[in-house]
Design brief:
BirA Bifunctional Protein, domain 2; single chain; 488 residues; RNA-binding; Rossmann fold; Translation Initiation Factor IF3; 3 domains; alpha+beta; globular
RNA sequence: CGGGGUGUAGCGCAGCCCGGUUAGCGCGCGUCGUUCGGGACGACGAGGUCGGAGGUUCAAAUCCUCUCACCCCGACCA
């Protein structure tokens, strides 16, 4: 294995893969498009998961678990939904294997009467259950979330960004009124924005998807969109207002207070392990990862330095009281006592994105201090041993803020208002970034622009104000001011 | 499914065109010793049905045929 990772400027895609594999976040699985999330990557995911789960639970949602397998017929119940997912479903057709000479073959006698699909998302199975659970307005709302794995048999995959199987959470709520469902959809969008910005240090645009880009079966899809280090857009989370579409498909009605029968209103929403990819691509640099402290598996790595084992042991003893204090206050601190050279360890933990590194050697101990390095800025300084425990939380906080600000100013400096299509084309082909443009609201315009430039409408920002704008493509009066970008 | 490419040690590769008997190199790995403040070094050592099947030949990693797998580009993709 060569040292370090491919520089971003040389090949962003190769840099990304290098980072994921060499830092031990994930590895390729044996089946095409699958990945193993290794302990370091899983720990990162669990920190993200914990942050979001706390917010979901404290906003009144409950966790539950629905089956992996769905009757094939369920998918067909909602017309747009089936069209959206049919092409990427794993289908279970048999239940047994049998020996055939030296080989294992599918036992033809075990063919299923009704084939079963592996969930690509759970709306259908969940709504088939909600039908049983909902009779009266008193049964509403239902606010359920599940943490699960799903399978979408995509043709082209990339670690964390698009894998055949991935982990996510999917919320599925049922409401008595359209207003309540819309409020829920927006509440979740705001929780996702908070997760991205306050925990992942990832500035996001919130907006609504065009009909072409919305979820198959939704009335409206809201999303958070982020800019990656190569200026391409990544959809980081979606929140759908499903209206009464799934209630119609599964015939889920309830009795109102005044004894009327009405269809239930629904929402669904999800974020996935793709967020890990978003973190990597928005904060990473040529040395590797730069993890935001709030979700970093290790926040502080301690490197003892000494010519002898004895000196290293002294260094560890020197820092131990501070380590205990930090751990008690919830800081994730580790000591690297591997038998490697200090230089190797510095590079290793920098690649792995640990926010703070403490070096302790004879020189530090003589000064009664420790050397401290920030991964975000590369800054190094010395801190008195007695100040370590109290300054580190503040430093971690500062790193969290700084990563957010760097990502935000990067995005802002690559976001441009454009009103000529010629400029738009060269922006998409050469410069790259987010283009803020007028759009006439037609699917034809959207499709033509996609065909000609590969740029898509990422979202109609919630702050939409098309007054006086003209469509970048047709020149007609703009219906919306939208964000165009090339996306993952 | 179209176009291109690659399969040789855990990883990255050379050898193949022009067949030759013990198949190499770097990294990594093991043991021991010296090192240790920005990717240390030495000695010794372990590790291979050369993707698979068939063929040509005295002889195949190398030539021929078939086959499988994976990667990249495209089409596709909430």
């Amino acid at each position: 294995m060569s040292k370090g990772v491919t520089p971003q400027s040389k090949d962003f895609a190769a840099w990304y893969t290098d980072v994921v594999v060499k830092t031990g976040l994930a590895d390729y699985g044996p089946v095409k498009g699958t990945m193993v999330i290794k302990p370091y990557g899983f720990s990162l995911w669990q920190n993200i998961k914990k942050s979001l789960d706390d917010m979901l639970v404290s906003s009144g949602h409950q966790n539950a678990y629905f089956p992996l397998f769905i009757p094939k017929s369920f998918l067909a119940q909602e017309a747009e939904h089936v069209e959206g997912f049919a092409k990427e479903c794993a289908v279970v057709t048999h239940t047994r294997l049998k020996a055939d000479d030296d080989d294992l073959i599918v036992d033809p006698d075990s063919k299923l009467e009704e084939e079963v699909i592996v969930r690509p998302t759970s709306e259908t199975v969940i709504w088939s259950m909600y039908k049983k659970w909902i009779q009266s307005y008193r049964d509403l709302p239902i606010l359920i979330n599940q943490w699960a794995n799903i399978v979408r048999w995509e043709m082209r995959t990339r670690l964390f960004l698009r894998t055949t199987e991935f982990l996510w959470q999917e919320g599925h709520t049922a409401h008595a009124t359209a207003k309540e469902a819309e409020e829920e959809t927006l509440k979740i969008l705001d929780i996702y924005r908070t997760l991205a910005e306050d925990y992942l240090a990832l500035p996001v645009l919130t907006g609504i998807k065009t009909d072409a880009e919305k979820f198959a079966g939704a009335d409206r899809t809201y999303c958070i969109e982020a800019m990656m280090g190569d200026k391409r857009a990544l959809q980081a989370g979606t929140s759908h207002n499903l209206g009464q579409n799934f209630a119609k498909a599964f015939n889920v009605t309830f009795q109102t207070k005044d004894n009327q029968e009405e269809l239930v209103f629904a929402t669904s929403w999800g974020v996935s392990t793709r967020l890990v990819g978003a973190l990597i691509m928005s904060h990473g640099d040529d040395k590797g990862l730069r993890l935001p402290p709030k979700v970093a598996p290790i926040q502080v790595m301690i490197i003892p330095i000494g010519k002898t084992d004895d000196e290293k042991k002294q260094a560890i003893e020197f820092i131990n009281p501070a380590v205990s204090t930090l751990r008690k206050s919830g800081v994730r601190v580790e000591v690297d006592d591997r038998n490697e050279s200090p230089g190797f360890k510095f590079n290793d933990w920098e690649m792995k994105g640990v926010p703070l590194r403490l070096e302790i050697g004879p020189r530090d101990m003589a000064e009664n201090s420790v050397s401290i390095s920030r991964r975000d800025s590369g800054e190094k300084s010395a801190i008195g041993i007695n100040d370590v425990a109290k300054s580190i939380p503040a430093l971690l906080d500062n790193i969290q803020q700084n990563l957010f600000q760097q990502a935000q100013s990067f995005r802002n400096s690559h976001t441009k208002k454009i009103d000529s299509y010629d400029e738009f084309k060269s922006f998409m082909n050469e410069t790259g970034g987010f283009a803020l443009c007028g759009w006439d609201g037609t699917a034809e315009t959207e499709q033509s622009i996609k065909n000609e430039t590969k740029a898509t409408i990422r979202c109609i920002p919630l702050s939409d104000n098309p007054k006086g704008l003209k469509c970048i493509y047709s020149g007609k009066a703009a219906k919306h001011e939208v964000i165009f970008a090339k996306a993952y």
